[in-house]
Specification:
- With 909 residues, the chain is mainly alpha-helical.
- The protein is built from 43 helices and 8 strands.
- The strands form 2 sheets. Strands 1, 2, 3, 4, 5 and 6 form a 6-stranded parallel beta sheet that branches. The chain has a two-stranded antiparallel sheet with strand order 7-8.
- The relative contact order is 0.04.
Length: 909
């Protein structure tokens, strides 16, 4: 392949790039999007060549050579950062590289995944700091190619982690999915980019391109033939390249030669498109004859790639020296791509055309393809074994060769990426050889990837097996689909889960078991998206199906799921009923996992019902079972519940310890949803300890990463943080946000909590007069639920309204509200900050802050004491309250009364 590469027809794009590069010191993002064969890579090469040799910037411009994501080394973020450090000078990045080495050593020593994650987040900051020091003196241009090789669900996140925060730089990214990446950056990180969509070359540019191509190949085409090529190529350089390539090598194209130009020019657009497809086929059809070893190599390379001499030796059964010579020869073709590691591959458009037009003719019974795949699978299995052994040796070198540790770590990253790649390539060929064997290997590799937390590789596996779905049995198809749903759940893509589960439920002839599973998956997605009522409806459907058809295992999961929704709506009695039924069924079935899960769920309900010892005992029993099952996730869920129990029973330090244990487990598993939930709960506890800044960090993380169902809770606790910081306006805003989103998704629990605290907040705003409107709204919207937690909230609401009314001079109304609220608090509240004694203390403080003297307390104490001692249930439950109220009666009567009880203002409710 000549280095004298032709470049024409992209002046508009280059002018745009020139403007962007000259926009010093603003950082700019440019996305080059185009289908295959239109010249994305060639445009990047031209940009590199022009600016590498451009002296107009007087040495202030640094342009890095293309980072091609075809090389799987760069599918690891830190390897991209390391490559950028090499481009800009490793000496400038020494602080970052030293920190990277230290963290890799800590990982070897077994530091917790949570700690390492936090440190790796900081190390990214170190990289940005070093980069920006360079960018103070130089404008940096970085070029990325083949972004489509990254998985669709991860490419935007992956790239944004690398470049976020870089100053005075231009990043140019090219790929078939560049439009999607541009959209992601705009919506996810708020950093807009400019999109360049490459169109086919214009007729004039195509003609100039062909003239250069002929001169390069010492070829002069007859004008009529050249016109036909230009018309059929339709501005796609790859097709012009192929036509000239074959004609220069004296490979005839009889169909093209015999085709009449005049007839071609008169064709309708639809008919011309048919001729263009024939043209594509003709450009690769000579390979059908397999006249030379190079033809065989090209044909083989369309399915087995990338190739190195060893693999060519195996596939073509030749010597290593001959294989090496063949690779050197084939590099002369324009449609051959050499990867950074020197392996070679066909241009993706050439690969598509050979697969579409050649293989069906040359191998109709697929025997040749199966033979090639057997050879490739055997070779790949050998390579997998060798790399696994190399990784063992590198692990030893990391320990024994400290001066080269960073290089060994980077080599390890490369080999681990290569290992997973080879496993995926082997699966491709096993599926061709034997579909049943391939399916079994898919299941095995998916399990391995899950244990290794290789989420992106699981996506690769799913993409590999997806074309075979219509050839699999119904049970095999179900196993693939359920793993697709698991993958989406681990990525937190609940909209996609809901859509896929709905599609699967619409399939005919579903077994009842499969139908129940897909309903559960859809219901869980609905719940995670915050649509609790819809989720309950789906789970009700599952419960009915499972009970009718005795699907006991699915029924267990549906009952636990429905119980979880009930508990999050504050309906603890309904939740308890579902959990107890599930517990009985799981014990009868000897289903240890479901026993442990249900015990954890029961612990939460017991917590909310104030049964402290029972809640802790439930969790301890669950932990023991999770240990026997060796289930880190189960243990993490139980530690999370232990944290909440400890928090609710006023043991904040103990709660933090349990939350940290849970967070370590979920961080190690890269479970974003559960990490977000734990961080949200940790924030509550840190707030109790007065660590408001730390609480705010956890809430922000949970808001950015957590599922939609967590937003009401996050908004509620964010409002609490602002309230404790004295920022009343922000607190009110976040309470209102919580109410709004809770009402949208039918989440009564946080809606009611926010309304109650908004009522309390009115006292801090000194808007005492609002007690009447708040009371009216409450009676209209919040009196239709009577479970225990809502009764506690209702008690607090009436007490807050009473505080407002009494400070507004409405004593009789206030007294009535106290008589409504305080009994509810006394009989149902157990959380120490909100028990009746604590709430009365706050009322005492508010009244004394509101008035110049405290005579009102004597009257209130007298009236409430009389009320309390005549209620035996209240006296038995909270006898100390009577003592407190009697103490209020004894407030000095020597102080002058204020006009706290203006008869003209009195309202009777």
């Amino acid at each position: 392949m000549t280095d004298d590469r032709i470049f024409v027809g992209r002046d508009t794009e280059l002018t745009h790039i020139e403007h962007v590069v000259g926009d010093w010191p603003n950082s700019r993002l440019v996305f080059i999007n185009a289908a295959g064969g239109l010249g994305k890579t060639r445009l990047l090469q031209e940009i590199y060549q022009r600016y590498q040799t451009d002296d107009t910037q007087q040495g202030q411009l640094l342009v890095g050579n293309i980072i091609d994501f075809d090389d799987q080394v760069y599918h690891i973020a830190r390897n991209v950062r390391y490559r950028i450090a090499q481009i800009l000078g490793e000496r400038a990045f020494e602080p970052y590289l030293q920190k990277l080495l230290q963290l890799r050593l800590l990982k070897v020593k077994g530091m917790s995944k949570r700690f390492l994650q936090q440190e790796f987040e900081l190390i990214n900051h170190d990289f940005v700091t070093c980069f920006n020091q360079v960018a103070k003196q130089h404008r940096v241009v970085l070029l990325f190619d083949t972004t489509e090789t990254l998985m669709e669900s991860e490419d935007g996140v992956y790239l944004s982690q690398i470049v976020a925060g870089l100053n005075n730089c231009v990043l140019i990214m090219a790929g078939r999915n560049a439009t999607r990446i541009a959209q992601f950056w705009q919506t996810q990180i708020g950093q807009p980019g400019q999109l360049i969509s490459l169109s086919p070359l214009s007729p004039l540019a195509s003609e100039i391109y062909m003239q250069h191509k002929q001169a390069q190949n010492h070829l002069v085409l007859e004008a009529n033939l050249a016109a036909k090529i230009l018309l059929l190529a339709q501005g796609r350089p790859i097709l012009i390249d192929l036509a000239i390539e074959w004609l220069a090598r004296s490979i005839s194209l009889p169909w093209l030669t015999e085709l009449q130009l005049e007839r071609l020019q008169m064709l309708s657009p639809e008919a011309l498109q048919v001729q263009q497809q024939i043209f594509e086929a003709q450009l690769v059809n000579h390979i059908v004859n397999i006249r030379t070893p190079l033809d065989r190599l090209i044909l083989t390379m369309s399915r087995v790639y990338p190739l190195d001499p060893q693999l060519v030796q195996v596939l073509l059964k030749t010597s290593y020296q001959t294989a090496q010579q063949m690779l050197e020869q084939v590099l002369a073709y324009v449609f051959i791509k050499q990867l950074p590691d020197q392996r070679i591959s066909l241009h993706d458009e050439m690969r598509r055309m050979v697969s579409q037009y050649v293989w069906p003719n040359v191998d109709p019974d697929q025997q040749r393809r199966r033979r090639d795949s057997r050879l490739a699978a055997t070779y790949l299995n050998q390579q997998i074994g060798e790399i696994a052994q190399n990784l063992v040796e590198i692990e030893q070198l990391i320990i024994t060769a400290p001066t080269e540790q960073l290089a060994h770590f980077l080599q390890k990253d490369v080999l681990e990426g290569r290992l997973w790649h080879l496993k995926g390539q082997r699966l491709i060929h096993i599926l061709v050889i034997d579909l049943k064997q391939g399916f079994d290997l898919f299941i095995e590799l998916f399990g391995q990837a899950t244990l290794a937390h290789q989420l992106s590789f699981r996506a690769i596996l799913l993409a590999i097996i997806r074309p075979y779905l219509d050839q699999l049995t119904a049970d095999q198809t179900y196993e693939v689909n359920i793993r697709q749903l698991w993958y989406l759940a681990d990525r937190g893509q609940y909209e996609a889960i809901h859509q896929l589960a709905s599609q699967l439920l619409a399939q005919p002839n579903l077994t009842l078991s499969h139908q129940a599973e897909f309903l559960i998956q859809r219901a869980e997605a609905e719940i995670k998206l915050g649509h609790l009522l819809v989720g309950i409806a789906s789970l009700n459907e599952v419960v009915a199906i499972c009970r009718t058809h005795e699907l006991a295992n699915k029924l267990l999961r549906a009952l636990n799921g429905r119980g979880w929704v009930y508990q999050n709506r504050g309906n603890y009695n309904a939740a308890l009923e579902d959990y107890l039924t599930a517990f009985t069924l799981s014990v009868e079935q000897n289903n240890t996992e479901q026993v442990a899960q249900t015990l954890t769920n029961l612990a939460y309900v017991n917590t909310m019902k104030g049964h402290q010892s029972e809640a802790f005992q439930n969790c301890y029993e669950a932990l023991e079972l999770w240990g026997t099952l060796e289930s880190p996730k189960g243990m993490g869920l139980t530690y999370k519940t232990l944290g909440e129990i400890s928090w609710r029973f006023n043991r904040p330090d103990q709660a933090i310890g349990y939350y940290e244990q849970a967070l370590d487990i979920f961080t190690h598993a890269d479970n974003i949803e559960l990490m977000s939930t734990v961080r949200c709960q940790m924030a509550n506890t840190l707030m109790m300890l007065g660590q408001l800044d730390e609480a705010n960090k956890h809430l922000r993380w949970a808001l950015e990463n957590g599922p939609g169902s967590l937003k009401p809770e996050i908004f509620f606790w964010q409002a609490q943080v602002y309230w404790k910081q004295g920022n009343l306006v922000e607190a009110r805003e976040w309470f209102q946000r919580c109410r709004h989103i809770s009402q949208q998704v039918g989440e009564q629990f946080n809606d009611y909590k926010s309304f109650v605290d908004l009522t309390a907040l009115m006292w801090d705003f000194k808007k005492y007069y609002q007690w009447q409107s708040l009371y009216d709204l409450h009676e209209k919207q919040y009196t239709n639920t009577n479970n225990e937690f809502f009764l506690r909230l209702r008690g607090s609401f009436y007490r807050h309204v009473a505080d407002l009314a009494i400070c507004d001079g409405e004593y009789e109304a206030a007294l009535r509200f106290y008589k409504l609220g305080l009994p509810l608090i006394a009989l149902h509240e157990y959380h120490k900050p909100y028990v009746v004694e604590a709430q009365l203390s706050q009322t005492h403080k508010r009244i004394t802050d509101c008035y110049d003297h405290t005579q009102i307390l004597a009257k209130l104490g007298q009236d409430l004491a009389f009320f309390w001692k005549n209620r035996q249930d209240l006296l038995a439950k909270s006898p100390n309250v009577l003592a407190k109220l009697v103490a209020w009666q004894q407030v000095s009567k020597k102080q002058t009364s204020t006009n706290f009880c203006n008869p003209a203002k009195k309202r009777i409710l």
